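Recall from the previous chapter that SMILES is a line notation for molecules. Here it describes S-adenosylmethionine.
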Amino acid sequence: MSFEDLVMNEEFWQTLWKEGRIGFHEGTVNDFLARFYSRLNLVAGNHILVPLCGKSFDLDWLLAKGLIVTGVEFNQGAVEEVFARLNLTPEVDEIGPLRRYRSGALTLFAGDFYAVTSDLLGPVDAVYDRAAMVAIQPETRANYAAHVVELTGGAQQLLIGFDYDQNAADGPPFSLAQELIMQAYGAQYTIELLKSIKVGGPFADGVDADEQIWYLQPKG
Ligand SMILES: C[S@@+](CC[C@H](N)C(=O)[O-])C[C@H]1O[C@@H](n2cnc3c(N)ncnc32)[C@H](O)[C@@H]1O
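With both inputs in hand, we obtain:
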């Protein structure tokens, strides 16, 4: 990704947060996560990475499962809100361009996902991607996928995205049909559709979309 792309991308998201245009934020745990979490076969103490986490209540839900949870999010206010609602007072330090907030099993990095390194994360058992890959511009999607794989050693994933006619509406969320997931992750993972439902929520009237949850299993 060029520096220019990166800056434009960050400005775009910071503007949405500043203006409160965060229709992607759900007021409760994601239904697909609650229904299909068991597929990850995680136990308390396992470490899950939540890229582009926003201020999602999925973070709280994963913590309540006893997991070690690490999220990454551009918007510092969103990160601080998560700790506040959990009644946690984080330790905060600066690591290069990232600001790291830590309390107990929860670590959130405020900053650019591409600045996070595998050394900062340590071993990762699973990735939970809800509306993260679909938030990435299609031209840079391969970079995103490569970074996820590099950070986690290709850990298993639950991936929640949308599939719709990209000509009928602009992203984000960008459409993520199976072949696009295959292009990005097919070398490392087998890809299984767990559930697909029709949705209208984040889309303009008249655009049919499917919300889908995928299980990405590392190959051999
Ligand atoms: C569509 S939202 C999804 C948020 C969250 N996963 C949820 O389900 O509510 C995408 C989020 O990713 C953040 N974001 C986008 N690109 C990022 C990047 N390169 N590094 C860190 N955060 C990023 C945005 O600020 C935004 O909050």
